[in-house]
Each structure stands twice: as structure tokens, then as C-alpha cells.
Prior knowledge:
- Helix 3 crosses helix 10, helix 11 (300-319) packs parallel to helix 14 (390-407) and helix 12 packs across helix 14 (390-407).
- It contains 14 helices and 17 strands.
- It is globular and about 70 Å long.
- It has helices at 8-13, 40-53, 63-83, 97-107, 130-139, 156-162, 185-194, 214-217, 242-247, 282-298, 300-319, 346-355, 368-374, 390-407; strands at 21-22, 25-26, 28-29, 91-94, 117-121, 142-146, 167-173, 198-202, 221-225, 236-240, 258-261, 266-268, 324-327, 336-341, 358-359, 361-363, 379-383.
- The chain is an alpha/beta fold.
- The model has no long low-confidence stretch (mean pLDDT 97).
- The strands form 5 sheets. A 7-stranded mixed beta sheet has the order 4-10-9-8-7-5-6, with helices on both faces.
- The protein folds into 2 domains: 8-30 and 299-407, Aspartate Aminotransferase, domain 1; 43-297, Type I PLP-dependent aspartate aminotransferase-like (Major domain) (Aspartate Aminotransferase, domain 2, 3-Layer(aba) Sandwich).
- The structure holds pyridoxal-5'-phosphate (PLP).
- Residues 96-98, 125, 127-128, 173, 177, 202, 204-205, 225, 228 line the site of pyridoxal-5'-phosphate (PLP).
Amino acid sequence: MYSTTLHLEKIRADFPILHRKVNGQALIYLDNAATSQTPLSVIDAISDYYKNTNANIHRGVHALSQEATDLFEAARKKIQTHFNATHAHEIILTSGTTHSINLVANGFASLLNEGDELIVSALEHHANIVPWQMLCERTKAKLNVIPMTENGTLDMEAFDAMVNSKTKVVFVNHVSNALGVINPIEHIIKKAHAVGAAVLIDGAQATPHLIPDMQALDVDFYTTSAHKICGPTGIGMLYGKEEWLRKLPPYQGGGEMIDQVTFEKTTYADLPHKFEAGTPNIAGGVGFGAAIAYMNSIGFDAIKAHENDLLHHATKKLSEIEGLRIYGNVPNKVAVISFNVTGLHPYDIGTLLDKMGIAVRTGHHCCQPIMDFYQIPGTVRASFAFYNTHEEVERFVSGLEKAISMLR
Ligand SMILES: *Cc1c(COP(=O)(O)O)cnc(C)c1O
């Protein structure tokens, strides 16, 4: 009934976890916006690293240390190429999006003055709100919020009116993890640059579905986490334009990030090491590189086409259910569906689905301001990846219908 350009049986064979049972039922994993599953090529890359190469990097003269350094730096290069950054040293390997944003927000403490303004959006993950609130407390800068509209998009007229010569940093996600809506970041970047403000884009939810081009976007900072793109947890990226990374002070002090240390004065290492204090997650970096290679072997055009099919199929089926409301049901979105059913608590729906082996997320999705806007405690969120199938959509919808009839 549904055709796809992806060879799904072959792809699913790459993911051992997709073949296990949960509560006696074949697992249907629809929580990809929280974390994606890991293919064998990534698991093998990490395991091979520990079996054959494990050593500390950038320090030893011995062969293993050199090889480990080469593998880690090759991963950085793969990430640079994938996101089309101008230089490999503009890719800082962090523990993930949260770390990346804290690094930047912390750095701006020395660049802001009282009365400066920052702009955030109402659609952000807490990771792109709280570090900036902490910055505002320290600097007395003012935080302005781009409001959202009933359909889950940003009020761009309000944004345009908010940007002025006092605006110093604008931080918005590329794709909302709670709703799946794609934000107009090209416009936001141009408008912010017109007043000399820096822009940080939280790309954690965009990078599983599309390839953002750092040079074409002309963005100042862009962040993501490997575990959202089939990579391991505990590793991620901060892309920063060279000029900005030079302006920001180091985030953490320690080994690796120094040039010379004396008790009188310490000088810092050059980029990217200035921001990579201590022994990094070397195996994670290797796994991150392998994940990028894996995603590209499938191809983002094919991924997008298949995920769009799943999104439309699921949206159509869900819309037929009485009393079901989808939040952020706009044309420009990725395969994330956030919904509620009148009179039912999202947690109850999620619990019953879990009994049927269907993994969805329920709650506020680290986006309490969005839930407050809709005046709801949370939503049920089904988020799809390229390895999900139309049969899984069918089973999810019939499971949901069953859960609703049990709760009503
Ligand atoms: C997952 C996610 C984060 C947080 O990522 P961590 O890996 O937990 O640091 C931040 N923003 C968005 C949009 C996300 O989807």
C-alpha cells in the first residue's frame, strides 16, 4: 500500500534493539525526539575503539595515543564536512546540546553590559532557556521572549519589533522538540545580524531530519547532540564561527585547554582545544563520526521523504479520532506529533501504550512554557525516525484507539 525509497528491512536489521520485545509485544519505538536508536556500525566503532585503540589523545608519543588522536580528529573532520563549517577547529566536541549552550551563555557573561537585551523564543527546550536566565542574573541583561501563536509557530511580527541596537544575542531552536515545527531561522539570523547581534541555533531536533549548512545559514553558533542522530549519548557539538570562538573566554579550565601554565599567568590553547578541557569522550566522538557516516549512507533526501510519508499517514489517521487535538499541526514540520485526547491525561495514554510495546513520550517535553501557553499539563508525543514503518503507524493508531476506549 505504501511505497518507500528506503530498504526498511535492511535498515531495521542494522538496529538490534528494534527486534526486542517490550511487555511481551514487538517494540514500536516512537520516542526518537528524546533519543534515537543506535545502529551496529556505531556500536562497532565504539567497541573497536576500546578493543584496539584506547589511549588518551593529544598527549602521548606512543602509537596508540597517536591513533586515538587521529580517530578523534577524523570524527571532527566528518562533522565539519557534514555541516559544511569553514574550519574543523570551529567544531567543538562537547557532551551535548546542553553543554554547548551553557558554554556559549557562560562566555557571554564577559561580553554583556547592564541593559543589553537577549531574545529567546516561547518554543524553547529548557536547555535553551535556563543557561541564559542564569546569564541575565549575572549581567543584568534583559531577556525578551518571542511569543508563540495558537498553531505552534513563532510570532515573527513580534520578533521583528523586538530586535534593536541593544539586542546582543538571539537563541532559538531550529525545530521544536515538543511540536516538531520548523522555525524560520534564516529570517531570524538575517534580522539579528542587521543589528550586530549573535545568533545561537539549538539544532538538536533538526539534525536527525535535515542537514543544516553552517556557511549558507551564516549562523554564529549551532548545537546538536549525537544521540539524536543515531550516535551515542554524552557527546555533541558546538559549531561556532571562528571570530566568535576567539572572542569568547574558555568555559572550563584544566588540561588540554592550555598553552603554558605558571602560577603567574596561564595562556590558552588554540581552537578547538581552548574549549575542550580535560580528557574528552573519545569513544563517543568516534561513535558520533560513525553515526554521521551511517545517516549519510542512507541519505537525507530519502530520510526526509520517508519520514514525511509517515508523518502524513499518522496525522491523517489520528485526525479521524474523535476529541484528538494535534498541537503545531502546520505544513512546515518534521515527523513529530504532539497531541491530547479530550478528557484524558497524557500519562494514562502513554502507560497503556507501553503495555502494548509502544514507546511514546508524555509530559512537558522539557518545554513547560509551551504547555502553559496551551494550559495543559503535557501532551502525548509520537516522534518518528527513518527506521519506522507504516505498519508501526497502523499499530500505534489502533493501540491508541484501544487505550482511549479503555479510559473512557
Ligand atoms: C534533546 C534536545 C535538547 C537537549 O539535548 P541534550 O542531549 O539533553 O543536551 C535541547 N534542545 C532540543 C530542541 C532537543 O531536542
